[in-house]
Amino acid sequence: MTTTDDGGGVLTSIRPFGTALQMNLAAALRTRRLGTRGWQGAVNTAYDPLDPATAADPFAAYRALHSGGRLHYNAKRATWVVSRLEDVRAALRDTDKINSSQGVTRVRMAAELVVLTDGQQHSRLRKQVQPAFTKRALDSWQAITGRLATELVDNVLANPGCNVVEELAIPMPLRVIAGILGVPEADIADFRRWSEGAVQMINFTPTPSGILGGARCLAAALALRRYFLKQLASGHLKGSGTVLGRLIEHSTDGNLTDEQLFLISILLLIAGNETTTNLLGGMFDVFARNPEEYDKIRANPDLIPMAVEELLRFTSPIQNLYRYTCADYDIGDVTIPNGSRVLLSFGAANRDPLVFDDPDTFIADRNPRMHVAFGYGAHMCIGAPLARMEAEAVLRELVERVERITTTGPTTWSTNSSLRGPTVLPVRLQQR
Ligand code: HEM
Question: What share of the chain is helix, strand, coil (3-state, %, to 5)?
Fold first, then answer.
């Protein structure tokens, strides 16, 4: 880890993934100290996604935001809060004024990563990853997801009362990604341990416990990096059917180095794991609470794709991401000044009563086409078809084999301010 002063604050630079990831901790703390001086004209709010209780159960807060006004400002956190669907979509579109180059989390950070760049640099990096997600590639992954869904639902059926998050929602996306990268079965346990450690980077906070956790994920990221670079150097993980093999074959950006290939792999792990886990865990919670909606899908399995869209809207695996304004940005008659931190609440937008009737109710055949669970605009999720495929595979397996999903104990929810999903969800599946 190195630190430099860029004149605007101390940039803490770490290279966990071989590329510089710069976090402006001083700027983050300074923004907080600005307090109410940053406020200009929006409705003041105490809504705070960093509060663990709010993060675990944010829906009353969303109702208050929706009835309170169009744009809110939390002075304690020096954060503007955008909660209406149309405003979230407009902000995601307007990358000239409000963008990702200073980060998409509460701590400002910069790195040459697709999610943290804009304009031409972003297009170039996105084109590096896109060939992995062609229709042909997706078709070739159907068998992997179908097989895993059967095996994991088998396990849950065989263990009534098990924590379905541990038993199915975590291993499904992780093993799918391992499978499409071509990681051999024998390495999957290590791969899982390092990946789970490394992806916690997304939860970094500049607090003593956050820094300690950060050191642990750094160690995991370095182990994962050693593993990848060793495998890549000996020609593994580059086969023609693998993700990296496809990227090498279709590269429009010269020869991709092993470092670049590793970076792309870690990006897929970070972007695709906890998000999909939250969706799959959320699915069991929703159907245990709404048996009549589950029955609707059992009676008509053609509803599966539509039900997955409604699950995405209703559970919103990423509840919030941030943007920073790079020019004055207007919402209605309020101007958010250049340099501000703006929270885009996907979770609130997906329950916007101006767009969705009865937004807090799960309706399997609602067909909520406007939802922003995968974002919108230039940065819209590249892995959306894969996440949908995984959720559809699990739901198909359930409706074919399971009559009723019931919980056998209390559900615990994550308290992360951006990603929300169950962490403990004991279930029993009643076979047909
Ligand atoms: C239910 C599961 C998922 C959800 C809810 C989700 C959500 C999102 C969202 C909201 C964004 C936009 C970020 C932004 O605007 O700053 C995004 C971007 C991205 N997602 Fe996903 N994602 C999921 C699964 C996946 C999977 C499975 C992969 C790949 C294996 C993936 C790869 C990516 C990548 C590479 C980006 C960056 C795109 C860019 O910046 O241009 N995601 N995702």
Answer: 55, 15, 30
